[in-house]
Specification:
The protein is of the alpha+beta class. The chain contains 17 helices and 14 strands. The protein has two domains: 281 residues, Beta Barrel (Butyryl-CoA Dehydrogenase, subunit A, domain 2), CATH 2.40.110; 187 residues, Butyryl-CoA Dehydrogenase, subunit A, domain 3 (Up-down Bundle). 45% of the residues lie in helices and 13% in strands.
């Protein structure tokens, strides 16, 4: 178990505070690598410490007694309050409360932490609400495993993220056709007490900050890929797990003033290596079964609930973007200009469209065969298909609005400490009602949102987090109500004949 847990697997204190979360990470033996060195403590290293603090803030929000009605519900197993992100809603009210909790968390980081504790929680809640999918009739209780591990995550307030995409090595070949065949993370040995995993998986967003990592695959598999058709959970400090972080934007930030977003919300992405990692059977949910590995995503509420969280978060990010756009136009004294209003309205139209699709998901929510509420599929996949298109457009419109203002900025906050430099800045870099320090502060915030390396990563993330755009569009194709559309076509065709006769209708 991850450091911070008792020997019986239960976290001391149940619903965690931010400090308890950080204490569990501190020097827990996880192996994280960055810039050629091993990071001994992610809670204090400049590349990760502020992101850790931002996640800790989420736990504090849920832990705060003032938020009890919004952020918690009673565990059916322990009778204690647990985080509502783990709820499997059975009523529209419960679904609404779940949405409110996700939104409250997203607002604390302006929608910029994509893989916080609430993201993969949605997947596990979805899997645990349809455990029959995991019954492979092998005699091993994988259906029971997924429910019991979900309950462990829920009742111990665990932060779990996932790695579900193989490395980009040779995509022309299937997993078992790679050379050597253990490049993609898969099973290399079966034992009485568990299995051995060898290989790597990419896009472990948040892996350096989390307690556990979920290993599975959402990519299509081919005949012979059985060893990679798995779903399991591994503690981030388990022997043999190595987390290789990409370059840290937080560590590169000169100050919070200069990079107010990158310095605090860079959750980092990682290549996660599993080097002969032992996984006990109770943490295995799919084992060498390609059919179940596929069905777990599309025949349970997992994909809908996990990605609905992403849509709520993204809506918060778009609202934040609109606030920045409006404030910049106001500061520059051009808000009354009809052309500027039209420009901002163009950005607002896309943000409103996405928000409307989010509302539609809840307005069309239905109860599935298991008795659980699911947001509407058509609106859900329409939002997913549009996300990769509208975000780059909104960024470009924001860049046009800001013009050269986000480029011609002081080199760093240190410029204000030099009296000679500050004098020039106060004279030439200011706007009515916005002295130099406040103007620069707003424009640096805008740059970190639309133009910095951190902003570029978010542009790429929003394009591909749900998969390649053609895949997300295909999901919409599969769930669009063509029957209703076809009925309109049938009615139109039935309204006239070859001779042009038009039947009377009322």
């Amino acid at each position: 178990m991850t450091a911070g847990y008792n020997s019986d697997g239960r976290f001391a204190g149940g619903l965690r505070s931010g400090q308890q979360y950080m204490d569990a990470l501190k020097n827990d033996g996880r192996r994280v690598f960055l810039d050629g060195e091993e990071v001994s403590d992610v809670t204090s290293h400049p590349a990760f410490c502020e992101a850790v603090r931002s996640v800790a803030d989420l736990f504090d929000i849920a832990h705060d007694a003032a938020n009890r009605d919004v952020m918690t519900y009673t565990s059916p197993a322990t009778g204690e309050p647990v985080n509502v992100i783990w709820r499997m809603p059975k009523t529209t009210e419960e679904l609404s409360i779940w949405r409110g909790a996700v939104e409250k968390w997203s607002e604390s980081n302006f929608g910029l932490i994509g893989r916080g504790p609430d993201h993969v929680a949605g997947f596990f809640s979805g899997w645990a609400s349809a455990p029959e999918i995991f019954d492979d009739r092998s005699g091993r209780d994988f259906a029971g495993n997924i429910v019991r591990f979900y309950e462990f995550l829920r009742d111990n307030d665990v932060y779990i993220t996932y790695t579900i995409v193989p490395p980009q090595i040779d995509r022309s070949k299937p997993a078992h056709g790679q050379s050597p065949p253990d490049l993609y993370a898969g099973v290399t040995e079966e034992r009485d007490d568990g299995i051995i995993i060898q290989g790597a998986q990419m896009l472990g967003t948040g892996a350096a900050l989390s307690d556990y990592v979920n290993l599975s695959t959402i990519s299509p598999m081919q005949k012979g890929d059985d060893n990679y058709a798995i779903n399991l959970a591994v503690a981030c400090n388990a022997p043999g797990v190595r987390i290789h972080s990409r370059r840290s934007y937080a560590a590169a930030a000169s100050s919070v003033y200069d990079y107010p977003l990158a310095s605090r919300y860079d959750e980092t992405d990682a290549l996660v290596v599993f080097d002969n990692v032992f996984v006990p059977w109770e943490q295995v949910f799919v084992y060498k079964n390609m059919e179940i590995c596929r069905r777990q995503w599309w025949e349970t509420p997992a994909h809908i609930m996990g990605n609905n969280q992403a849509h709520i978060r993204f809506t918060t990010k778009l609202r934040f973007m609109m606030g920045v756009a409006h404030r910049i136009a106001e500061m520059n004294g051009v808000l009354a200009n009809p052309a500027v209003q039209a420009h901002i309205a163009e950005i607002a139209a896309m943000a409103s469209l996405y928000e409307g699709l989010l509302e539609a998901q809840f307005a069309t929510a239905t109860t599935n065969s298991g008795g659980y509420m699911e947001p509407g599929y058509q609106a859900h996949y329409a939002a997913e298909a549009l996300q990769s298109e509208i975000y780059p457009k909104m960024l470009n419109l924001m860049r046009e609005l800001c013009g050269g203002g986000v480029i011609q900025l002081p080199s760093s906050a240190a410029d204000f400490a030099n009296p000679e430099i500050r004098k020039d800045l106060e004279r030439y870099v200011q706007s009515p009602g916005y002295p130099a320090e406040e103007r620069v502060k707003l424009m640096k915030l805008a740059w970190d949102l639309i133009g910095s390396e951190f902003a570029g990563r978010h542009d790429q993330y929003e394009k591909f987090y749900a998969g390649p755009p053609f895949i997300t569009r295909r999901r919409l194709f599969q769930h669009y109500n063509f029957e209703k559309s076809g009925a309109l076509v049938d009615a139109a065709l039935a309204g006239y004949d070859l001779a042009g006769r038009l039947p009377r209708t009322r």
